[in-house]
């Protein structure tokens, strides 16, 4: 089992739309950016790589996505599938989805 120094919890109860989702993600994954990441799937991919203040590039992390079903309702199934695909491409990230 891989040791994860960082556990990041995405909470579907913390956003009502894509813009708020990206604000939530930026707060969780980065420190002191002088630019906003979203809504931009390429920027989402980039911050998952690391190196933006919270964890090093490709450092093993675990993402726990709570209130996942609510996220799917708010963002839409097709968009959630894109996000999950990007997360699952990252070899250094393990993901748990919690309703």
- Strand fraction equals 15-25%
- Gyration radius, rounded: 13 Å
Outline the low-pLDDT stretches.
Answer: none
N-end to C-end Cα span: 24 Å
Secondary structure: helix percent? 40-55%
Number of strands: 3
**Mean pLDDT, rounded to whole units?**
92
Structural class: alpha/beta
Order of helices and strands: EHHEHHE
Largest sheet: 3 strands, parallel
Q: What keyword list fits this structure?
A:
99 residues; alpha/beta; Barnase, Chain D; three-stranded parallel beta sheet; 4 helices; 3 strands; 17% strand; globular
Description:
By secondary structure, the protein is an alpha/beta fold. The protein has one domain: Barnase, Chain D, CATH 3.30.370. It is built from four helices and three strands; from the N terminus they run βααβααβ. It has helices at residues 18-29, 41-49, 68-75, 77-89, and strands spanning 6-11, 61-66, 93-97. A three-stranded parallel β-sheet has the order 1-2-3, with helices on one face. α2 (41-49) packs parallel to α4 (77-89) and α3 crosses α4 (77-89). The model has no long low-confidence stretch (mean pLDDT 92).
